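Changelog excerpt

This revision adds worked examples to the README so contributors can see how folded entries look when concatenated. The first example is reproduced verbatim below.
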Amino acid sequence: MKTYAIAAIPGDGIGSEVIAAGVEALTALARRQGGFQFRFDHFDWGGEYYKKHGRMMPENGRDLIRQHDAILFGSAGHPEIPDHITLWGLRLAICQPFDQYANVRPTRVLPGITSPLRHVNGDELDWVIVRENSEGEYAGVGGRVHQGSPLEAATDVSMFTRAGVERIMRFAFKLAQSRPRKKLTVVTKSNAQRHAMVMWDEIAVEIAAEFKDVTWDKMLVDAMTMRMVMKPETVDTVVATNLHADILSDLAAALAGSLGIAPTANLNPERTYPSMFEPIHGSAFDIMGKGIANPVGTFWSAVMMLEHRSSASPRTRNSTPRTSVAPRAPPTSPRRWSTRSRGRTGRAFSAPPLPLPAGLLRHMFQA
């Protein structure tokens, strides 16, 4: 029987609760389908590890997970530790060295959720946002001098390389090509950022020539926020820089009704390193331990993990978790999918109808 090794990193706050629910669901799925199984290796990295050891993960942490088939991640963020330490010490310490340069965030209005947008009932909002995940505004280049003095200065330098922009543009065009509408919006800010963003625009034009069947347009990031709110039906696939897509994807999740159930895939498309899958939500210490953390974002991220393992091409259409096994309360309700429901979660995934995308299991783990 084929065994797939998954590195489970709960991280901080409710991360341990939602990852436990995700592990339970995936274990039940493998048991129901037969022919394969998961081996979950758990790593207690995060804020509590930092308080004991002065770092978010051990020095050889990446070596411990490098050979795994995938990484299932919970959240990073601890109220007693500065955010830049928790982010750069764990999540980015995995994403960047493992060259997970394509951050993919699908957004849809799930059954039972009401979008805050008046005229959106579901189909009008079906997006995928592709975020450059290895350089740009989060390249980590910069520094501070003369700290504490009146002459103190600090820089954070946005670094864009032709290789980095080309590969994320090509990934985004290919993804748009695979979706029914074959439509891509390239987000930019080249009116004000006249060097890197102009190069970004020029490379988009070059890559577009390889995808004659994809209709594409360009939009300034500030105008894009208005378009997402006012004309959501005109948006399909979006590609943006690390910072721009970070912000736009959170807006997208909110417009779909809940930031708490949105998924993320941090992909190394070449599969040189394992890819990492995580819910968008944070560590939410205010609800930790109450049994009301919603694991739907983890379930959806697990679906993306299975799809990545099953095919060399990105697929996000139909990658939404089915809800036919859930109670009638909306997915954002604590009594629908909550970590208090563990045990019932495994039974739900073990019995038909299976809450995974139609056709997914036919292709599972063929790559």
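The second example, added in the same revision:
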Amino acid sequence: MTTFTPRSETLTGADLSGTNGTENRTVALANSNAVIQQMQVLVSEAIQQNTINFTFDSDTNTVTFLGVIWDDQPISLDYFTASTVPASGAPFYCDTLQLVRFSGIGVVIELETLGTGDASNKSFDTDHGNIIDGSYTVYTGATGDDSNNLTTMTEGTHYSIFKDDGRVLLLTAGVTLLASNELYISYTYSPKQSDTILATYLPGAQAEVDKLTGDYWGDPKTSIQYFDGYDSGYPQTDKPYGFQIDPAPELELDFKGINSITTVEYLDRVGDVSQTVDSTLISLDDEGRVILNGQSLPNGKRNVKVTFVHGYDDVPVLVQELCALVAGMMALVNISGGSYKDISTYSLGRKSFSRGQVYVNIRESIDQMKARIDKISDDLGSNAFCV
């Protein structure tokens, strides 16, 4: 799933390459993976048009101003950056931000004021802890501004964040950039559980997704599967006569996303390789079936060894949702177990107040999530191993 994050930069012509009062001056955006869609560029508060007043090169992340730009002209850049979550190589099929979004246990905070810079204060506290990884953006803007003209800070360059307890620590470059301006943060937090706790649900959720769908959805990897050989009721020689009357053997792999077959090997009685099938005789269909052309399998049990590569470059969107829902159910079960001490109904004098029954609400949420899990599992291939 592609996530788009809003970004904003405030510059002057002096920040561009080239000479004052010339054309084709350029600037590299501070945030990588920017997209041209909905990009808004203003020069001296005048809107610039793509391909007429400016161009954007996504490969270099660079904006080129086609007209004359003077050093004292103010420039505003508003755009989005794209990220695929989880990206290839990510540890699990989903992340904690998807978990809280799909399960409804996250609360979004927009442009919370952290404080004002004074060139020495480095530590700022958010109103809430349990900040979710990947959900936060830190900004700085002029004091007394309407919070629309903001500059995005970069984690690791300008600041560090301690998500579980909600602390933001400015680094040297961040203190310099903030100066005497206001510091803001937008983020999502989970009232009941920290990002650290939520992350512990992801390994189990991923294993459950593999079981529900009968497939592996991560980065390509090598696996081995064993099959029984020929069972004709009579012995065969090394050059079996049976293949003249039998169809080409088909071996059905347990997984769907097969990239390639590395080897097909016949094993002897002690498990050593007695023959390796010529790769030109091996074909693979879209259903994950390995077809051995011009071959007849030797007699035996678990004596045919297939080594293959399977997996996906990107986790499919439905698999990400399924993983987030399964992990979200784990989180809700944990919250339900701790709800015994939550006050849901209380009285003050002759007045009675009710805040809703926690257990009842969680149970309904889990029921709805189960229904969605069943639907996605069916779409992706539920019970693929059942016969």
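Reviewer comment on example two: The two ends are 33 Å apart (CA to CA). The chain is about 20% helix and 35% strand.
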